[in-house]
Structure formats: C-alpha cells, structure tokens
Design a protein that fits this description.
Blueprint lengths: L15 H13 L3 H18 L9 H12 L17 H4 L18 H12 L4 H21 L6 H11 L32
C-alpha cells in the first residue's frame, strides 16, 4: 500500500490525484490524434470536478490553462485558446496577516478596552454615567458568556477602575445591572452537559 504522503506533491490538489494521473497518461500517448481526444476527455472531467468555474465567462480557457499547467507545459496538443502561463503565485493568493492586537482580558475584547479608554477621557456628567452603565452591562454579559462562575459586580467594578487607571469608578451599591441574556447556543469552547 502506498500512502499519498509518499507520492509526488500535487501542483493543483483541487483536481485530485486521478486527474494528475490522467494528464500523465495523456503525455505518454504517442499518437497526436489520440492525445487530443484524451485531452478533451480530461477537460470534461475537470469541468465536472470544478462546477464553480462554469459561472465564469472564460471557464473553458481556464480549464485548458490548468491542463497545460498540470502537464508542466509539456502536453503537445492543439489548444483551442492561447495558453496563459500560470505560476504558483497566480494560482494561490498570498495569505492575509491576522491583526494581532494585545488584549488584556480576552473575554471583554478589544472594543471594550477602546471604549473604556474613551470613557476615561470624558468629562464627568450624565453622558459619561449613561455610557458607563452601558459598558458595565456589556461587561457583565461578556463575563456571563465566557465564565458564569466569575460573573460578579465587584469584579466588573474593579476591572473598570483598572482599565481607566482609577479615574472612572462604578458604585455597585447604587448601580442596577440589567438581566443577562442567556443564548441558546453554548459557548464554542464549552461542552454541553448531558442529562
């Protein structure tokens, strides 16, 4: 038995090993007419393997370009379209970098930290009190979603004071939290308990 990890690497894995073997077989055919018919058959199989290409205007041209690429541009057939040379960079886009931001408490998230930074800069007044109320309730909801055991009004008040360097304080004796909304979906990191 031969494993795929022991075989040659596929240059276009979306077509699968069978298509690659078919292209290799077509390259071994000496009669040009038979090789042309074999190439036509391979194109039909490739079209069935990649149905999303049918939505594009020039999908047949792309299939012929892919066939030429799969053969390493060595397949001697009459191409119905001029062959566009492809390289690995044009076939696969470069991966996007993930924005890596330092978040002190991941359960609150980056936007909560940004919001509390803005809240720290605001002048005391009704608007700041209303925004503090919204933020405290949002933090309570975040704690509830991530760890119900850690949900505590004192923790939220101390976290707000820590984030704002002590300039914004939440008086938990006067503040009324709204009820948390329990989602029907469990948190992705937590397993649902069986009854």
């Amino acid at each position: 038995m031969q494993y795929n990890t022991q075989r040659d690497k596929l240059c276009m894995p979306e077509y699968g090993r069978v298509i690659h073997d078919m292209v290799r077989h077509a390259m071994s055919i000496s009669d040009k007419e038979k090789r042309q018919r074999c190439a036509q058959s391979i194109i039909e199989v490739m079209a069935n393997k990649q149905p999303e290409l049918r939505k594009q205007d020039d999908f047949r041209k792309k299939l012929w370009d892919h066939l030429a690429y799969l053969s390493g541009y060595q397949l001697d057939v009459d191409y119905p379209y001029p062959v566009t040379r492809l390289d690995a960079e044009t076939l696969r886009p470069t991966p996007l970098s993930y924005p890596a931001k330092q978040i002190r408490n991941r359960h609150y998230g980056y936007l909560t930290e940004q919001f509390l930074d803005q809240l720290e800069k605001m002048e005391p007044g009704n608007e700041r009190t209303a925004l503090l109320s919204l933020m405290a309730n949002q933090m309570k909801q975040s704690l509830f979603d991530w760890n119900r055991d850690a949900m505590d009004a004192g923790k939220i008040a101390s976290d707000i004071a820590r984030y704002t360097h002590g300039s914004v304080n939440l008086d938990i004796s006067e503040f009324k939290f709204r009820n948390v909304v329990q989602s029907s979906q469990p948190h992705p990191g937590k397993k649902k308990k069986k009854k």
